[in-house]
Design a protein that fits this description.
alpha/beta, Nucleotidyltransferase, domain 5, seven-stranded mixed β-sheet, five-stranded mixed β-sheet, 12 strands
Length: about 350
């Protein structure tokens, strides 16, 4: 029983994996059509569908649930907690059913129910709501609004550990600026293992991304909200889902944008450069958090595979610190490793409260 089952549910996909300790045995990304999901009013109602897909995946690959020593699932939108490894509990599941409306929460329920049924531990780690912000980073300028920590914690923390290892150090002894650049973009100041400042990558903060607006001129946004042209839902969609590259260029596909640039599309080049410019500005802002004492800048996420974009960023920030490039996001392995470290007693398993 040295196998770990990994569950990572997305809006239209179920990414499922089996690991033998840290070694990947099989990972599948199972797509769900819009028609298949349309019948469900709430995300939590998808539970029977997602459970069937998971059981079919396990059996199709010649395994049974009794063979697993642990289950690892992606962190979800319950309530803000300190980053780290947590045992999945009924309290966590109950809070999701009240607070959350995201597919990762269905994964949380799946993990909890299967863990109870088969007597094996279930873990989650580094939730998108992981919150280690310093008090000074929470101040917004309006007392009624507090800055929040919503970012790609799982991949940022994993990239931080990999970067530290490459430099022959421990993540917990370094000052790192880590930029996750993908469909959403988050840039965090990691001080000795804690993310003390980071842009809210979900609700409109920091650089714009392929499909998110990033920070906006507040006065103009207020005028747009009260113009009578858009509903609240439409404005929120402009911020997350239909902002950024989608709004300017009609696509969230970076490869398509780069092809247009190579075909001498000047507008595509300006907008793509502007995204790199804003990413670099945010990295520079995080350098001030450390008063310039930065050990390395880490660039990770799907867009870190874009030489064009990364080179534009490097031109502006290379004076700050050495740059480490870790393209992509190995979330499945990160989840498996987190559960394994918990089982081996290498990390404290925190209590969700």
């Amino acid at each position: 029983m040295n196998y770990i089952l990994v569950i990572n549910l997305g809006s239209t996909s179920s990414k499922l994996g089996i690991f033998k300790e840290e070694e990947e045995v099989v990972v599948e990304n199972i797509h769900h059509s819009v028609e298949e999901l349309a019948k469900y009013t709430r995300i939590v109602e998808q539970y029977p569908l997602r459970r069937k897909v998971l059981i079919d995946f396990i059996e199709r690959n010649g395994f049974s649930l009794s063979q697993f020593m642990a289950i690892a699932c992606r962190g979800t939108a319950t309530k803000p907690v300190e980053a780290g490894v947590y045992r999945v509990t009924k309290k966590m599941v109950d809070d999701f059913q009240v607070e959350g409306e995201h597919p990762t929460g269905v994964g949380l329920i799946l993990a909890y129910n299967l863990a109870e049924e088969f007597g094996i531990p279930a873990y989650t780690l580094d939730s998108p709501l992981s919150d280690e912000l310093e008090p000074i980073a929470r101040i917004s300028g309006i007392p009624e609004i507090q800055r929040k920590s919503k970012f790609h914690a799982l991949n940022q923390k994993d990239a931080g550990r990999k970067a530290a290892k490459a430099m022959g150090k421990q993540y917990e002894e370094m000052n790192l600026i880590i930029a996750h650049i993908g469909g959403g973009i988050s840039i965090g100041a990691h001080r000795r293992g804690r993310v003390i400042d980071v842009n809210n990558a979900l609700d409109g903060d920091g650089p714009f991304s392929p499909e998110r607006s990033g920070g906006l001129p507040v006065g103009d946004l207020v005028k747009l909200c009260f113009s009578g042209k858009f509903t609240e839902r439409e404005i929120l969609k402009k911020i997350t889902g239909k902002g950024g590259l989608v709004a300017y260029l009609g696509t969230n596909n970076a490869l398509e944008v780069e092809k247009r640039i190579l075909d001498v599309d000047k507008e595509a080049e300006l907008i793509y450069q502007a995204m790199a410019y804003q990413i670099a500005k945010e990295i520079g802002a995080m350098a001030t958090v450390f008063k310039g004492e930065v050990d390395a800048i880490v660039i990770t996420g799907a867009l870190a595979k874009s030489d064009m974009l990364v080179n534009w960023i490097k031109e502006r920030v290379r004076f700050i610190a050495p740059i480490i490039l870790l393209p992509g996001a190995d979330e499945m392995r990160a989840l498996a490793v987190g559960a394994l470290r918990a089982l081996k007693g290498e990390v404290e398993v925190k209590v969700y409260n």
